[in-house]
Every structure is written in C-alpha cells, then in structure tokens.
Specification:
423 residues, alpha/beta, Alpha-Beta Plaits, 3-methyladenine DNA Glycosylase II, Chain A, domain 3, 3 domains, 4-stranded parallel beta sheet, 16 helices, 11 strands, 11% strand, globular
C-alpha cells in the first residue's frame, strides 16, 4: 500500500491517453504509457488540474459519501465559505446553514468563523515579528504540498498556523462534546469541500498526526439535496456567526484583505502561483509581508468540486458580504498557541532521489543529463512524459526508453531504412 493518500483518482476505462493532463500537472506527476495515464502518487498534490482539464472525465476525486454521517451519534457540518457562492438570490447564509441541518446534520459551524480567528492570529504574529517574511499562507493545502515538492527552500516561510478547516473542526468538536456530553469519537465533524486537496489534507495532514475533521463531503455531491432542503424551508434559524472578513476567504484576495495592511500579494491559479514562488525563491519579490496563494483560479470558489462558475460565485460572495459586519470572532486567551502547527513542514527527499547510494545517484544524474541533451527539447508530451527532462529521468529509472521519443524513433527508423537501402 502506498504511504501517500490521494483523493484524485484515475478511471483507466475512460482514459484515452490524450496527454492533456500531463501537460498541465504542476509537479509532473502524470505519465502516459500504453495509451493510459498513470499518476505518480509521490508527486501528486491533489490540486485537481487533471480533473479540470480531462475531456473524457477520466480523473475524479473521492470524498466522504453524505450517508456516512449516519455512522456518528452527533454530526456537525463545517461548510467552506465558497459554498455560499453556489446559490443565486441568497441574501443570508442562515438559509444555507439551516438547509444543512435539514439534510441530516445536527449542528453547523462555519469555517469562515475559524478564518476570522486565523486572520487575527496572523496579524498578531506579524506584529510580534515571530515569522520569516514574506509569510506564505498555509490555507491552500495544494500550495503547501507544491512548496514541499518543488520549492523546499521556502518551507520555513509557510505560515505555521492550522488552516481554518482544522481550527473549525477542533472548536466544533469541543463545543459539541460540551453540549451533548458525548465522547468525541461519537461526534462526526464533516467539511463541505470545494476541492480534492482539502480531502487529502484531512486524511493525511501536513501539520498534525490526525485531523479533528472526520471527513469531507464534496459540494457537488451535497448540492442537490441541500438545494431541495433550502427551497422547502418553513423557518430559517439564526445560525450565522461570520463577518465579511471570514466569508471573504472564499475568493482570491480575501485572506490578504483580512491582514488590514498593504504589504501583501495575492495570486490564484496554479500557473500564477508557480510563477510567484519561482520569483520568491530567486528573491525577486521584496517589500511584502504576506503572500496569499490559491491553486484554483479565483480562490476556493474555483475548486473543481463546486457546481457554479467561479466568477459567478465570486460575484455572489461579494454581494453577500455587503450585508455582513466586519468580523464576529476573536481570539481567546491562549488560543493562538493552540493553533500553531504540531509538525514542521519538511521536504520529502525520497520523491526525487534517484538512488539511496550517493555515488550511484550521481552516475544516474550524469546519464540523465547526457540523455536529456540528446533529446529535442520540445516538451511535446508525445512520449508520455511532460518534458524531455522528465523522459530522461524515466529512462534512467528504467521506466521508459529513448525510442519513446517520436523524434528518436523516427531517426532510428530512418537509419535502419538507409542501411537496408544500401544493401
């Protein structure tokens, strides 16, 4: 069994080997061999780009099934703020929260409440100068895993605070235990998620041994039942306890705006995120205290498990925020320290290590450089690898051969033809 958990899976029966996915994967985690794609589990960050780009719907995300909440005596839904952007003509988040109770949850706790606490904790840490600047937000798990794999030198710049999901789950479970008197193992806390990366983060967290969240239900899976419940409400409970600051986390720039300063940068979309990280690694970005990065375009409203167009959802979020106070949640004494990561963010050296033997690894590296220099450098993807250098690495690892490159194959065929012609 792989030591890496992933929510993104491949349906080989639907895969046509078109290579669209491998060209868009930010960590070169996909190969196409024998007409089928394969995901390299050690490199995948569950960003969902392959799900977004696959024309044959051969990639999908696994998540908790809604009926699994029945396994617990008491359940709490912790909805992502992006959920509120999925519904038209919504003038109060109370309608959505009440709807969640109608579909089977005993209680709700908005992740946007926890987002306001994380924002306050971040402001406090910046003011106390306790962090390496520029600080990179840890809210997007796909970005955190991207940094671990491609930009390990920036690990120390990642904000060592639990993401709002984890903060919400811990508070929700604690409050539910106090309210019901039930042991925590009988209380199920479920995140209503817009993306597969957050599913993976719950099952295999970077920051702690075990998440307080018991599962994640895709927004797209709960949306039909939730919409039906909302349409048939006879009474709306006053459940909302979030301000515009917390709800704003649903869109790109929302977390940065909550810093209440002007020395910040916000980027969304995996290609833009990589560009920022490259410039940050090269020390080309200066004069910035805080950097917000979202793997999905538009922020969490752009997650592949949403149902609405991200720009429509973004507009709805902005309109909804007009009716809200600035912030309704504040840190209690000692709460900031409880929000700090329990584990350090470290680079997994095994991911790219060619061999455990250093001398053998150096020889393999030399072979790789030699092979790469003989390839055309077009990065066309026709060989089944995303780049010529990736193909060279696969060849050295014994997972591919030089004639997988169509240009090399053509040259060899031409050579054979010329030899036969001279006989």
């Amino acid at each position: 069994m792989s030591k890496y958990f992933h929510s993104v899976e491949l349906d080989a029966d639907r895969c046509c080997g078109c290579t669209n996915c491998l060209k868009r994967c930010p960590t070169e985690a996909i190969r196409v061999h024998n007409g089928k794609a394969k995901i390299l589990t050690e490199r995948c960050i569950d960003c969902g780009e392959c799900i977004r780009i696959c024309p044959h719907h051969a990639k999908n995300a696994t998540a908790t099934k809604p009926e699994e909440i029945e396994n617990y005596k008491y359940t709490v839904a912790i909805p992502a703020p992006s959920l509120f952007g999925q519904f038209k003509n919504l003038d109060s988040i109370d309608i959505v929260l009440t709807g969640l109770k109608k579909v089977g949850f005993d209680d709700v706790f908005e992740v946007s409440r926890a987002a306001e606490l994380v924002s306050e904790a971040t402001r406090k840490l910046i003011k106390e100068d306790r962090l390496n600047k520029p600080i990179i937000s840890s809210a997007c798990p796909a970005v955190v895993r991207l940094i671990k794999i491609r930009f390990p030198e920036l690990c120390n710049n990642v904000m060592p605070l639990f993401a709002p999901i984890e903060v919400a789950a811990r508070i929700a479970k604690r409050e539910a235990a106090e309210k019901t008197g039930l042991p925590r193992e009988d209380i199920g806390v479920f995140f209503i998620t817009p993306c597969p990366a957050k599913v993976t983060e719950i099952h295999s967290p970077n920051y702690t041994e075990k998440s307080a969240c018991d599962g994640a239900i895709a927004i797209s899976k709960i949306y039909p039942a939730l919409t039906h419940a909302m349409d048939h409400l006879t009474e709306v409970e006053p459940l909302g306890n979030s301000g515009l600051m917390g709800i704003g986390w649903a869109t790109s720039g929302g977390e940065s705006a909550a810093m209440l300063g002007d020395k910040y940068l916000a980027a969304d979309g995996i290609e833009n995120v990589i560009r920022v990280l490259e410039e940050l690694e090269d020390e080309h970005i200066r004069g910035v205290d805080f950097i917000e990065l979202n793997a999905c375009s538009g922020g969490c409203v752009g997650g592949v498990l949403n149902v609405e167009n991200p720009y429509v959802a973004q507009a709805r979020i902005q309109n909804l925020r007009k009716f809200l106070p600035v912030s309704l949640n504040h840190l209690e004494d000692g709460e900031l320290e409880r929000m700090l990561w329990e584990n350090e963010l470290t680079y997994d050296a095994d991911i790219f290590r060619l061999d455990k033997d250093i001398s053998k690894a150096m020889d393999m590296m030399s072979q790789m450089e030699r092979i790469a220099s003989g390839l055309p450098g077009l990065d066309c993807g026709s060989c089944g690898a995303p780049t010529c250098r990736a193909l060279a690495e696969d060849i050295v690892r014994g997972k591919a051969k030089e004639t997988d490159c169509i240009f090399k194959l053509k040259a060899r065929i031409q050579n054979v033809y010329d030899q036969l012609s001279n006989i």
